[in-house]
Design a protein that fits this description.
This protein is an alpha+beta fold and 186 residues long. The protein is built from four helices and ten strands; from the N terminus they run αβββαααβββββββ. The longest helix is centred in the N-terminal third of the chain and has 21 residues.
Length: 186
Amino acid sequence: MKKLMFLLLLTTCFIFCDKKGTEPEPVKLGSLKVSFELVQMTSPRPSYQTVIWLTDESGNFLKSSYVSEWLAYTGYKRGNVCPDWVSAANWEDVTESEFDAVTGATPTTSQNSIIIDCQKAGLKSGKVNCCIETHTVEDYNILFKALFSLGSKAETVTPEPIYIPSKHEETSDALRNVKFEYTPAQ
């Protein structure tokens, strides 16, 4: 009987240890690079107010990663400047530390990139939507968004533009060459 109990205990220990060893290690996340070009235009001259944010796979807001300064302070209250972000972000309730962490000067009219450290940003592995929205003129905005995976594999996505409320013929190219590049942690 003692031998049977010992074998049962030993078997249970092996089973428990084996299961624990097969659980996946948490994935340390890498960085997400958002590359984009703002094109110099003079007539009409776009405002170039730009915001970058992330949502989960279902479209639920996760966090803002970059917000142009004027948009961050008062522009979000206008309703026609980057409206998709405004409706998702609940910006009026953002903490001062969140505000300071993501607010920056309006990007220059050139090729730009913003790098997000996914681990420091508190993101989790899995599918996320990355979004970039730029206000051009009046009620016109350009949005690019794409779903991709954060994890152990590199991924590059080149999304198509979405024009809000529609395409403005003179400023439809104000934001272009958008690319999202996820690089896993080394």
